[in-house]
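Slides due. Your pick:
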Amino acid sequence: MAQVWSIWKTSYRPFKYAGSQTFVLATPNGNILWSSDPSVLNQLLVQHDKCQTPLHLARLFDIWGPSLGSTEGEEWKLHRKVISAGFNSSINTKVWKESIDQTGSLLENLAEQGSVVPNLQKWSSRLALHVISSSCFGRRLHWQDYETSQKQPPIGHTLKYEEALFTFLDLLGFIFMIPRPLLKSVPLRYFRDAYTAFVEWTQYMDELREGVIARLDEVRARRDKSILESIVVAGVPEPGAPRDQSLTKENVLGDIFFTLLAGYETIGSTVTFILLLLAVYPESQMRIQQELDEQLGERPSEDWNIEEDFPILQKGYVGAVQKEVLRLYCVNQWAMRGTVENMSVTDSGGHAHTIPKDTLTLINFAATFHDPERWGGSNGLAQKLPELNNTPALGFDPSRWLGKQAPSRRGEKDVPLWFPFGQGARSCIGRKFALVEMTAIMAKIFKSNSLELIVDESTLKACGGDVKEAWEKTRDSALGLLYHGVSANVGIFMDKELPIRIVERTESR
């Protein structure tokens, strides 16, 4: 089990060595089935009555109480229904507008700092949190708040809202793994900071909850509730309503946290990989800019709209880049399921197998999406850079998703080959939310700006002043970092700095 954290880096190689797309590991705690076979994975994900989330593992996330991610059966259906109500058309419009506005403000903020971004992961993750906080919870964050130390925490708090939120997420590993009494009592800085952030963020979530309850009648009367409002209303049952159709306070806090974590981790890291890959492949960046010019013209960004612009950009090269990054750098590198009865599956070769009851199954997204037989090998750079063959960045080819030559997302027997948002009843509830946010961010950045890798003076000097050679060496180093600089906790993220520069587009646009 310790190896699951390195699944993305091992990629398809374990299956190549085993000579099979599916194998079983015999462990002291029971059998674990690993598979990268799309047909097998489809059955494990879709046959929810036979293969379910292993709750003893999912409950790691129950910091406050059971949530959408850690329940099954009728309890899970209630959580799903409640949160689904918040993912309505009105929230997608809010996400579109907020993503454009927050990205524009971030670009202005970075320009004041010189437009060099050493740690893109930091800013992309914060951008994702800004959008979630405003769109889902009605609490807007401002970039200038990070530069002012004069702003004081509200009465009754020791940390400001954004301080509590970011510290809580930064130290989430401590909060997950270490009992709260120990966090409180051990006189170590990280323990103390983690406990303070936990207490403060709990209090802020409770205040968000109380704010909705204070206007309960008005919120109940509206059809288009926010995610926060939908969750909180479900925790205050109407008179005479069955108790099993409402959420407890602990459930409410758990679902608020689950929604926050799901959007923050996945969108922030995916945006980071999109932007870094486009800096490495400027020809793809130029193609995006051409598409944005054709679709958005000279309209100001406040006139861009989700009804017309988003669908066209999704079907074009902007959407193709997102799909390719979600294939190569799928942030959720794996998922667990457990069989609750003997389960018959058919592999891609048409052979039938029986998976015994109580088998833990590992859905290996990374290996499935990197399988060279299904997706092809690396691009032409791989022949020049054999020492970098392990980096998925060498396989970056968004054009595979366009035109009549585009590979079908479905393979043998109409089974999906690409499913970064999952399949079946437990597929990602926020899929459109994520795509809308990423599309708006890309449009705002690349309509007026370009991203460049930074060639340092020492590299230029080592290349005898040859600018092209120096850039290629810088690109090769970036390609290496896009493998060696990637780490994993809940999902994969860029752990090493890969500096880029934001510049205004030239007149050759």
In short: The radius of gyration is 23 Å.
